[in-house]
From TrEMBL:
Pfam families: AlkZ-rel. This is Uncharacterized protein. It comes from the Bacteria.
Length: 50
């Protein structure tokens, strides 16, 4: 059921599903946020994504 909801949400919002691993996605998010988030925020984001 969750996969169907995710697919519907992605299609409705015109977003393509990525074919990358969870670890690759985590690294991309950390790299993205590191550009503008302070160190304390990065620690929290890293903890959430681990």
């Amino acid at each position: 059921m969750e996969q169907h909801l995710l697919k519907s949400w992605l299609e409705k919002n015109g977003i393509d599903r990525l074919s990358i691993s969870r670890e690759e996605a985590r690294e991309k998010l950390l790299q993205h946020f590191s550009g503008f988030c302070p160190d304390e925020a990065m620690k929290k984001i890293s903890k959430i994504l681990s």
